[in-house]
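Shift notes (night). Ran G protein-coupled receptor while the centrifuge was going.
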Amino acid sequence: GSLIFVLATLGISTLTCILIRHQTMMPESSRWKIIKLTERAIVLAYFAAFFSPTITFCLFPFDVQESERLINESQFELGWVPARGAYFKFPENMFIHTIIGAALTNLFGTIVVPMCPFWHMFYVLNRETNTSTRTKEMIRQSLKRLFVQLIIPLILLVAPLVIFFTQMETRCFPFIFPVLAMFCIPLHPILHNMVLLFVMPTYRKAIAKGFARLSRRNGTSV
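Came back to this:
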């Protein structure tokens, strides 16, 4: 439950950041410039889309005894599961299918929705005539860095979850695929920070200043 809430919050914050960045670039005369009330309504829609299935899933009561029965009656050989530790077998009913469908819709939306504003921001930037070439290049670099930062979450968070939920719904992958996919999620913080170091000069300068300050303190103490 905690992991689901964290991932949902990450998805909401990412989409909100892209929305605000997109609106910052839109000129006042653009038809794509929305008022603050509409912007808040879109953010609330993000919360509803991500948290409604999440909260419903976490609060829905599941019976442990039913889980044991489902394992015993499963068409797959699952007798080894109880010996491996804590476990739970979800029933295959309309509720679970609806939750999985909502999760897959949100995940695919997290892939598609950010791409459209990015394409539009680059399009508007290329057609902008009242901005100097130097400023346009700086904005373009900023957009590229923001886009690169999204690649790692898409690969290490969204893609594994798509594989996991698709396997739950269709069983179209070998059993090992969703297992390996979920093991990719812990790699996200490490690789994301490495990407930030490569593409964001601000992070590198802050770390360099920190090391320089630490070395000066050590030199003074000696």
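Residues 133-170 form the longest helix (38 residues). The chain has a mean pLDDT of 82.
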